[in-house]
């Protein structure tokens, strides 16, 4: 690219070229983020294979790093997940440190982020293989650190969701759109509350069919209380936030409660849905695939939302040469996302055996979801008071 060429001419040239040519010629950060998403998806699938398939290959136990497994196949499967996760984490952390201060297009860090794909693919493969050469003691240590990193990811995702809900509420409450979409907002808010109540009723029917299911009854009832709390805070005269934002947050809270109860291990009638489903069927497979795709989508959408995490809102207008999103933050989210998918595949416990086609199952997983739900309400209430 010549020095005098404008950024607009650069983008026009990229638009006119083929997708393959864009991939080879770098300098397209909008396309690059999807490539990183595909790399992250490949790491997810590879980690799943390590958990469900690699444990059946007896030759793997001969590797030096896998000889200290305490529980044989169960340990090998969880060990494989953590090793793949560690490789993905190292790759995105390397990208984080090399792109964290990128601010303008055409600079070296922008070109490194948006291109050099052959080198980066080879680098990712090498970093994926490297953890398999390490002793299991280091992998166990990484598993403990990954629990913290996965918690950081959940917090970042939570703030991103609350920021989006708050932005949506302010958008429809603005002078420009308040009158035009007044009826639409009321219908949308009412629908959200209706879905929340239906979800709570169904959880009572499916997961608390008898009075002895005290824990599930507590989880579900407390979610209803939290919904009422968020509504009261939003309608407080000092806040006057309306019903849309607590309705949308209610959907998120009920969803987290449902995920928490679904994460409880099977074994008694309190956690069996009416009309039990066979252990392994196409519904379980579809649920697993959707879960994997949801991890990738959540990581991708959170990664491009760096503006919600700026400590000081910049008053500087966006210029033509500014990068379209924060590269460093994008890669950091994918790095902690690698820890997060590892925890989901091992049930937040590296010594916990998981069934095939299962995702995020175990009492630790259930309590992580519940604590995340309660934290979401606390952050929302504080956020709405400060906004």
TrEMBL record:
UniProt similarity note: Belongs to the TDE1 family.
InterPro entries: TDE1/TMS (IPR005016)
Transmembrane segments: 75-97, 117-138, 145-165, 185-206, 213-231, 243-261, 282-304, 324-348
Alphabetical keyword list: Membrane, Transmembrane, Transmembrane helix
Coiled coil: none
Localisation: Membrane
Membrane topology term: Multi-pass membrane protein
Source species of the chain: Pisum sativum (Garden pea)
GO cellular component: membrane
Keyword DNA repair in annotation: no
Protein name: Serine incorporator
The keyword Transmembrane appears for this protein: yes
Lineage of source species: Eukaryota, Viridiplantae, Streptophyta, Embryophyta, Tracheophyta
Pfam family, one: Serinc
